């Protein structure tokens, strides 16, 4: 595995953050060339010539860097002229005490340059809030954990943190602007702010922060395509763009009325949609999606497919929504995009391609043969997995921290992973109920080493019923962070037990908590509790905990990993944290890109939270779920 293939929290020891040599600040006294993009009378121009943006979104942080060039080549074959990408702050700076890293997988400058070398313009969306179904909307948890800070506002506590981040980020983007001969033609201010707040002072601050650091290309905001979203998220003297999935002509009418003179640009056209664990798989037909795209093109609008290629939420990077209860996003970010998670060119690819070529009056050219053919795939195989250290032994072995009330992930300095809480409690005789107030997100509960049940965000206050003789008992609660909320008013919420634990109406005090950072090097995790007898497992039972196995590969190629018989947990390949698995679906296989495999022996490790199986399977086709939901957005 390439040493560049590391995610936040998976840095090799001794990694030093740096900025590529190609990224250098320019003299503030240098003459400033005019921005590449301009507009007048609802017409967009590039370097003085009439222009239409036809773009596709690809996120560098969701694609293995050895596949960047391939996915960019496929985007070019789609017939677009522009690549669009967010920038995820927590991908570059997961820890406050280390400088942002722009090397290896995090080399944003290289990704932008590759797109430019392929003939594409680039739109950069630096946020700092990006949503994107990405953990915490792109923010490091340490940057949003101050309870006195007003998030996404002009609060000086918040803007000061962003200033420091922009001081590192913008010098990566600035030299790659079109005025320097680079591909960057536009930069976004914040992101869909009209869905969150109405602090126009903050939006103006964000715009100024970009300009003061040398951004001179076109700046723009992005919001839903109605008056309501424009009211909160747009600025009167900055280009406003739309995010929507249908009814483009109606959005265009809103722009003609509200934004006179501005060209209509759907900077996010939702031609597919993402999935949550436990819900149905989302699909959108190629015909329906391309017909809606044509409507935007027919009124003269510009368009960007979100996503053109979705990629994968490797590691623990997927976020959550919240609608009455937590809705964690699956590991795949395929999003039913034209370019599938594994790079395949789908029916939607060809439908969108035809629409794009027709809009420009071009005849579709031949697709290069190496792009038209699917990538090589490993032969199907079964991989035996042997039991290792039991789950309770693993989490009990972490270093304890004592407190009177339970501590949150943030108080423990833990971003992602698990926290094991333990305390002595007096249980009443007969029936008792264990309740968790402020549970975020999912708790496994044991009483005196016996598994008692599972509580979730939204059900923690309902509690678990117990019946017994009463007396002193050891209470253990293992809380999993299933991904930080990326959208809506609950953005920035903490994880863990945020209030307390009750036995009936009585609080339990005096706790030990053991944070388990799953983004540590795997060999460190495997030492936790190693050699102890399995805890909490009946004889012959496939207990929760670590499982491992290996398989041989003649030549690395893509594969799709399934875990039949396993319940819920985490998977590593050759020490790289692939992501989460969960039997409830809809996703039943994890995409394994060829660069993560190596010739010869490959190792597979699973940390199972519920129940283990006997083997893993390498399959030749992905299984992301049966398309049960057709996503159609209604602007409202």
TrEMBL record:
One of its GO terms (molecular function) is beta-galactosidase activity. The keyword Hydrolase applies. Residues 15-27 have a biased composition (Polar residues). Residues 406-516 form the Beta-galactosidase 1-like first all-beta domain. Pfam families: BetaGal_ABD_1, BetaGal_gal-bd, Glyco_hydro_35. It is an enzyme of class 3 (hydrolase). It catalyses: Hydrolysis of terminal non-reducing beta-D-galactose residues in beta-D-galactosides. Its EC number is 3.2.1.23. Residues 43-355 form the Glycoside hydrolase 35 catalytic domain. Residues 546-602 form the Beta-galactosidase galactose-binding domain. Residues 1-27 are annotated as: Disordered. Keywords: Glycosidase, Hydrolase. Belongs to the glycosyl hydrolase 35 family. This is Beta-galactosidase. The lineage of its organism: Bacteria, Bacillati, Actinomycetota, Actinomycetes, Micrococcales.
């Amino acid at each position: 595995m390439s040493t560049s293939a590391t995610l936040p929290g998976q840095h090799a020891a001794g990694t030093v953050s740096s900025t590529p040599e190609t990224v250098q600040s320019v003299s503030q006294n240098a003459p400033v060339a005019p921005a590449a993009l301009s507009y007048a009378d609802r017409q967009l121009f590039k370097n003085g010539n009439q222009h239409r943006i036809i773009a596709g979104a690809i996120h560098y942080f969701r694609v293995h860097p050895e596949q960047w060039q391939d996915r960019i080549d496929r985007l070019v074959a789609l017939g677009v002229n522009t690549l669009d990408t967010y920038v995820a702050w927590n991908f570059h700076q997961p820890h406050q005490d280390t400088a942002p890293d722009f090397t290896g997988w995090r080399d944003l400058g290289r990704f932008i340059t590759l797109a430019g070398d392929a003939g594409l313009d680039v739109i950069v969306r630096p946020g700092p809030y990006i949503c994107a179904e990405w953990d915490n909307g792109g923010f490091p948890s340490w940057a949003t954990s101050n309870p006195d800070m007003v998030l996404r506002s002009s609060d000086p506590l918040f803007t000061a943190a962003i200033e420091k981040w922009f001081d590192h980020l913008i010098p990566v983007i600035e030299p790659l602007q079109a005025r320097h001969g680079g591909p960057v033609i536009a930069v976004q201010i914040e992101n869909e702010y009209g869905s969150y707040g109405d602090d126009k002072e903050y939006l103006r601050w964000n715009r100024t922060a970009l300009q003061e650091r040398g951004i001179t290309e076109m700046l723009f905001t992005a919001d839903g395509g109605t008056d309501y979203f424009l009211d909160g998220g747009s600025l009167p003297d900055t280009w406003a763009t739309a995010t929507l999935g249908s009814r483009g002509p109606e959005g265009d009418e809103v722009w003609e009325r509200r934004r006179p003179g501005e060209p209509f640009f759907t900077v996010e056209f939702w031609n597919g949609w993402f999935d949550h664990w436990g819900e149905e798989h989302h699909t959108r037909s190629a015909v329906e999606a391309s017909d809606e795209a044509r409507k935007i093109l027919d009124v003269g609008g510009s368009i960007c497919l979100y996503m053109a290629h979705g990629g994968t939420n490797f590691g623990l990077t997927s976020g959550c929504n919240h609608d009455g209860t937590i809705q964690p996003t699956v590991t795949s970010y395929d999003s039913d995009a034209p370019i599938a998670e594994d790079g395949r060119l789908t029916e939607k690819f060809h439908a969108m391609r035809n629409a794009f070529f027709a809009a420009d009056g071009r005849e579709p050219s031949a697709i290069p043969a190496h792009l038209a053919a699917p990538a090589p795939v490993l032969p199907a195989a079964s991989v035996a997995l042997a039991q290792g250290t039991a789950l309770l032994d693993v989490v009990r072995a972490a270093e304890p921290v004592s407190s009177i009330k339970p501590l949150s992930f943030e108080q423990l300095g833990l971003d992602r992973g698990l926290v094991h809480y333990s305390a002595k409690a007096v249980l009443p005789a007969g029936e008792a109920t264990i309740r968790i107030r402020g549970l975020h997100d999912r708790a496994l509960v044991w009483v005196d080493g016996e598994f008692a049940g599972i509580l979730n965000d939204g059900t923690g206050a309902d509690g678990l019923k117990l019946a017994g003789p009463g007396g002193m008992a050891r209470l253990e609660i293992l809380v999993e962070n299933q991904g930080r909320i990326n959208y809506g008013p609950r953005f920035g919420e903490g994880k863990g037990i945020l209030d307390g634990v009750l036995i009936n109406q009585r609080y339990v005090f005096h706790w030990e908590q053991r944070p388990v950072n799953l983004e540590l090097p795997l060999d460190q995790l495997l030492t936790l509790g190693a050699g102890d007898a399995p805890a909490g497992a009946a004889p012959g039972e496939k207990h929760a905990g670590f499982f491992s196995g290996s398989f041989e590969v003649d030549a690395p190629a893509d594969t799709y990993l399934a875990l039949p018989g396993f319940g819920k947990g985490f998977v590593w390949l050759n020490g790289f944290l692939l992501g989460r698995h969960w039997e409830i679906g809809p996703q039943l296989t994890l995409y394994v890109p060829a660069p993560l495999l190596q010739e010869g022996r490959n190792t597979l490790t699973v940390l199972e939270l519920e129940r283990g199986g006997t083997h893993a399977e390498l399959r030749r086709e992905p299984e992301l779920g049966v398309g049960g939901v057709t996503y159609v957005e209604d602007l409202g």
